[in-house]
Amino acid sequence: MSGPQAQFFEFLKQGKFMLQRVKSSNAYVFYPREFAGASDDWEWVEASGLGEVYSRTIIRQKPERGGDYCIAIVELAEGPRLMTRILGVPPADVTIGMQVEAAVETPDWNPQGGPVVAFHPATQHGSFRRAP
Predict the structure, then answer these.
(1) What is the average pLDDT score of the chain?
(2) Integer Cα distance of 14 and 44 in angstroms
(3) Distance separating alpha carbons of residues 74 and 98, to the nearest angstrom
(4) In the Cβ-directed half-sphere of 47, how many Cα atoms lie within 13 Å?
(5) What is the pTM of this model?
(6) Given the DSSP bridges, would you call strands 42-46 and 69-76 parallel, antiparallel or unpaired?
(7) In terms of Cα–Cα distance, which of 74, 25, 73 is closest to 48?
(8) CB 91: neighbour CB atoms within 10 A?
(9) Res 132 pLDDT > 50
């Protein structure tokens, strides 16, 4: 792996959840990607970590395989959406519109073994509303 994706995973190893931002439009981008055009028009910025569950599903598994878990699409306060797991709450309790906070974690369920961005129910920062 090389380029922006490799850089993103290197940030995760440092415990940082970073997003790309286009300077001229102030638009955030996720997943990490190469940009056509002026390479000095984008930068890496640390994500706020705040988000809202946009959709979710429960993956059913036998207890001996880890049990049920929730996969969700989370809309970040900065605008992009990403697929992730919601942790720290029973999967059935995850609801659309739930406020969540990001955490960089190294879970035992990641087949690649490295850190990932997962989300937990928001507890400290309250809710957010993305600017239109």
Answers:
(1) 88
(2) 14
(3) 9
(4) 32
(5) 0.86
(6) unpaired
(7) 74
(8) 19
(9) no
For the chain, the straight-line distance linking the first and the last C-alpha, in angstroms and rounded, comes to 34
Dihedral angle, C-alpha 4, 9, 14, 17, nearest 10 °: 80
Look at the block and give the residue holding tokens 């395989």: 65
Q: Which residue has the tokens 């992730």?
A: 84
pLDDT tier for residue 3 given thresholds of 50, 70 and 90: confident
CB neighbourhood size of 70 (10 A): 20
User: What is the Cα–Cα distance from 106 to 33, expressed in whole angstroms?
Assistant: 23
Question: Would you call 113 helix, strand, or coil by DSSP?
Answer: coil
Summarize pLDDT for 48-66 with one digit per residue, the tens: 999 999 999 999 999 998 8
Distances (CA, A) of 14 to 7, 20, 43, 46, 86: 11, 17, 18, 12, 21
Q: Assess whether pLDDT exceeds 80 at residue 46.
A: yes
Q: Which pLDDT belongs to residue 2?
A: 77
CA distance linking residue 8 with residue 57, whole number of Å: 26
